[in-house]
């Protein structure tokens, strides 16, 4: 009896943890400001083909909602700024909208978020004044329909909400926006809704290239930026911008609000002056972003914190005004071919669903510079033992023995294990002691194996599974890290 109870308890605890520990997710924004993009039915097929599970749309278009019925794809739908006035004034306006635009398609179409207004700090102040009343009315309408726990209400922001973002620990909201931000933050905290932000290292780099390195913006930096107040080290701008927001929230004592990135990305083409808007940079940014997010590493200020991110955007949008880059944020051409390859699972090096790879020459796995000696030793022993790696090259007088130190030997062994086990993020984890790199670490006569090299015993394993590449693959790993986190306080 007692045993049965314990089992029930353990099971419900596990279920509870599963609820908390869903893992970070990657979605895509589906902007439709274009006259040449495919119909929603075709887009639905494209989204499924590429294993995209989360989609943000900017309105509640009926064709789109219908197209994604019974697909399992989760939709974030938007209420445009132009509707805020009407939505804030009368509850009945919102009730009618919910009844006509969402409820007929729900729950076949899985709507999980409603964004009320977008980037209001860029809008006239009388529009931003309407946003919180409109959010409250949307919440009330959902509650009447019994959906206020299943569909979260929030609003998206640009980084213009901050008056200061560097160093991250000095992050602060611009007090000019306090008149609507303060009540909004109270609403979010009360209803456990995330703070939604659009983050664009591209603009930060473009507008101050002399202060910021491209590598830092692209998650490729080999050096770190230190926050002098906290000592936290930043290797990329994305993390720094997110932490600036966390610190701004903490400064106002909103410690429970989570951040969600509702847009980020990199344009593949720009005007003559926008020299870094290239397909290579766009691919690098987005692929590194996906790996970073799926890994659940969190940010320096919030290590291990889950972060849901939407990449902007599915298609190039040819009707957008502004600079050339504005019309070139897409991942796909109108004929649904990829502008560049991207693996939305972050788990294989190659997107094998379409086209062939032109610009990736491989990745390697090496020891992290921040790992401790004992972590490295454990990883090394494991790789050469249970991991089945051929470690003869790091024995005395063999080509990879020198330099005779733990970092070098662990790097060699980590990489061999990684290459022989599908070259996935998971295969380079080693309890956090492994990091992936796209620079070949080979030197002199010490040759690190690569996915295609002769030495890879398990060539079968390295040809990444193309169809089974759903995000679920990461399941056991993030569960274990979640469990670990959850149980630590008890032990
Ligand atoms: C905001 O002000 C503009 C111009 O002053 C006006 O046209 C618009 O109707 C106002 N909007 C609201 C929601 O009051
Ligand atoms: C704060 O917002 C106001 C109004 O948009 C703007 O004029 C001001 O420049 C902002 N301050 C900073 C430091 O960004
Ligand atoms: C790339 O794909 C195209 C069409 O699928 C094919 O014709 C071409 O040979 C491939 N190129 C390489 C380098 O594999
Ligand atoms: C890939 O390798 C080829 C041949 O070595 C080289 O020309 C090309 O620049 C490399 N591409 C990248 C992205 O490193
Ligand atoms: C693969 O092995 C063959 C014969 O064993 C050798 O000639 C060739 O150079 C090797 N290729 C690479 C990339 O190591
Ligand atoms: C790899 O595949 C070949 C046939 O394609 C098979 O004979 C071999 O046993 C496989 N090796 C492993 C390690 O699965």
Structural class estimated from helices and strands:
alpha/beta
**Oligomeric grouping of the chains:** single chain
- N to C succession of SSEs: HEHEHEHHEHEEEHEHHEEHEHEEHHEHH
CATH topology of the largest domain: TIM Barrel
Protein name: glucan endo-1,3-beta-D-glucosidase
Subcellular location: Cell membrane
Catalytic activity: Hydrolysis of (1->3)-beta-D-glucosidic linkages in (1->3)-beta-D-glucans
Domain X8: 363-448
TL;DR?
By secondary structure, the chain is of the alpha/beta class. The chain has helices spanning 2-20, 40-49, 62-67, 84-89, 91-102, 125-144, 178-191, 201-207, 214-217, 237-251, 279-294, 373-384, 406-420, 459-462, 475-487, and strands at residues 26-29, 54-56, 74-79, 110-118, 152-157, 162-164, 172-173, 195-198, 225-226, 233-234, 259-264, 309-311, 364-367, 434-437. The chain has 2 domains: 22-327, TIM Barrel (Alpha-Beta Barrel), CATH 3.20.20; 364-490, Methane Monooxygenase Hydroxylase, Chain G, domain 1 (Up-down Bundle).
Walk me through this protein's architecture.
The protein is built from 15 helices and 14 strands. It has helices at residues 2-20, 40-49, 62-67, 84-89, 91-102, 125-144, 178-191, 201-207, 214-217, 237-251, 279-294, 373-384, 406-420, 459-462, 475-487; strands spanning 26-29, 54-56, 74-79, 110-118, 152-157, 162-164, 172-173, 195-198, 225-226, 233-234, 259-264, 309-311, 364-367, 434-437. The protein is α/β, with parallel strands linked by helices and 491 residues long. Helix 6 (125-144) packs parallel to helix 7. The longest helix is centred in the N-terminal third of the chain and has 20 residues, at 125-144. It folds into two domains: 22-327, Glycosidases (TIM Barrel, Alpha-Beta Barrel), CATH 3.20.20; 364-490, Methane Monooxygenase Hydroxylase, Chain G, domain 1, CATH 1.20.58. The chain is 35% helix and 12% strand. An eight-stranded parallel barrel has the order 1-2-3-4-5-8-11-12, surrounded by four helices. It has a two-stranded antiparallel sheet with strand order 6-7. A two-stranded antiparallel sheet has the order 9-10. The chain starts with a helix and ends with a helix. Bound molecules: 2-acetamido-2-deoxy-beta-D-glucopyranose (6 copies). Residues 163, 174, 176 line the site of one 2-acetamido-2-deoxy-beta-D-glucopyranose. Keywords: Disulfide bond, Glycoprotein, Glycosidase, GPI-anchor, Hydrolase, Lipoprotein, Membrane, Plant defense, Signal. It comes from Actinidia chinensis var. chinensis.
């Amino acid at each position: 009896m007692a045993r049965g109870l314990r089992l029930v308890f353990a099971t419900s605890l596990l279920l509870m943890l599963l609820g908390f520990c869903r893992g970070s997710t990657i979605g895509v924004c589906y902007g439709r400001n274009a006259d040449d993009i495919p119909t929603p039915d075709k887009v639905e097929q494209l989204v499924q083909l590429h294993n995209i599970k989360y989609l943000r749309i900017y309105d509640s278009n009926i064709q789109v909602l219908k197209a994604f019925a019974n697909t399992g794809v989760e939709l974030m739908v938007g209420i445009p700024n132009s509707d805020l006035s009407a939505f804030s004034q009368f509850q009945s306006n919102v009730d009618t909208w919910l009844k006509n635009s969402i409820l007929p398609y729900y729950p076949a179409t899985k709507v999980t978020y409603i964004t009320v207004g977008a980037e209001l700090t860029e809008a006239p102040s009388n529009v931003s004044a309407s946003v919180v009343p409109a959010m409250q009315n949307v919440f009330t309408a959902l509650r009447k329909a019994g959906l206020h726990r299943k569909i979260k209400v929030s609003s998206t922001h640009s980084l213009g909400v901050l008056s200061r973002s560097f160093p991250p620990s000095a992050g602060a909201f611009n007090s000019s926006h306090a008149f609507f931000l303060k009540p909004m933050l109270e609403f979010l905290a009360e209803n456990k809704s995330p703070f939604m932000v659009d983050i664009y290292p591209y603009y930060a780099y473009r507008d101050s290239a002399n202060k910021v390195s491209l590598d830092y913006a692209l998650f490729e930096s080999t050096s770190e930026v230190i926050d002098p107040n906290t000592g936290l080290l930043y290797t990329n701008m994305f993390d720094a911008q997110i932490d600036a927001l966390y610190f701004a929230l903490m400064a106002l004592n909103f410690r429970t609000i989570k951040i969600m990135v509702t847009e980020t990305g990199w344009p593949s083409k720009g005007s003559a002056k926008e020299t870094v808007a290239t397909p290579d940079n766009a691919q690098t940014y987005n692929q590194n972003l996906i790996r970073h997010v799926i890994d659940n590493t969190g940010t320096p200020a919030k290590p291990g914190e889950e972060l849901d991110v939407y990449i902007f955007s599915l298609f190039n949008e040819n009707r957008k005004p502004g600079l050339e880059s504005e019309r070139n944020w897409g991942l796909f051409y109108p004929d649904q071919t990829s502008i560049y390859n991207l693996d939305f699972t972050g788990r294989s090096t190659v997107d094998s669903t379409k086209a062939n790879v032109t610009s990736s020459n491989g990745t390697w796995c090496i020891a992290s510079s921040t790992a401790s000696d004992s972590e490295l030793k454990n990883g090394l022993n494991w790789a050469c033992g249970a991991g089945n790696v051929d470690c003869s090259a790091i024995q005395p007088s063999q080509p990879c023995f020198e330099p005779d130190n733990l970092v070098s030997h662990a790097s060699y062994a980590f990489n061999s294990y990684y290459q022989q086990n599908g070259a996935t993020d998971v295969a380079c984890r080693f309890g956090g002691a492994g990091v992936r790199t796209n620079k070949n670490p080979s030197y002199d006569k010490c040759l690190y194996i690569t996915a295609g090299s002769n030495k890879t015993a398990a060539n079968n394993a390295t040809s990444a599974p193309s169809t089974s590449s759903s995000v679920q693959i990461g399941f056991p790993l993030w569960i274990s890290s979640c469990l670990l986190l959850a149980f630590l306080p008890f032990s």
